[in-house]
Amino acid sequence: MRPTTVDALIIRDGKIILIKRGTEPFLGAWALPGGFVDSGETAQDACVREAKEETGLEVRVLELVGVFSEPLRDPERGTIAVAYLCEAVGGEISGGDDAREAEWFSLRDLPELAFDHKEIINTIER
């Protein structure tokens, strides 16, 4: 069985929060905040938890963006990702857990991204 992960698309005023990965795969690359769904946890709860751990922000899940299951999206584990559009409702932005940094980026000027995160971001209306 393939592991399930979540990704948080935290967007405000034409900007999105990305984290700089502190672990492999894609060590040092920019990515959406997210991580693995723990046993006994809903995907939505995992998204809120991972966003807080990696960005310092409290978020509220607004809607499902999609499920991304291309086997090569994660070269190490072939994870299935559930992505959610979120809004920040508290906290201060700072990298944490396995994220070296967290930063706002313009949706019009994104850096190169890990995994299939550019494709995930491109599925939302801007």
Labels describing this entry:
single chain, 126 residues, alpha+beta, Nucleoside Triphosphate Pyrophosphohydrolase, 7-stranded mixed sheet, 2 helices
Question: How does this structure look, described?
Answer:
The protein is α+β, with helices and mostly antiparallel strands and 126 residues long. The protein has a single domain (4-122), classed as Nucleoside Triphosphate Pyrophosphohydrolase (Alpha-Beta Complex). Helix content is 15%, strand content 42%. It is built from two helices and seven strands. It has helices spanning 43-55, 117-122; strands at residues 4-12, 15-21, 30-31, 34-36, 57-68, 80-91, 99-106. Strands 1, 2, 3, 4, 5, 6 and 7 form a seven-stranded mixed β-sheet that branches. Strand 2 (15-21) and strand 3 form a beta hairpin. The longest helix has 13 residues, at 43-55. It starts with a strand and ends with a helix.
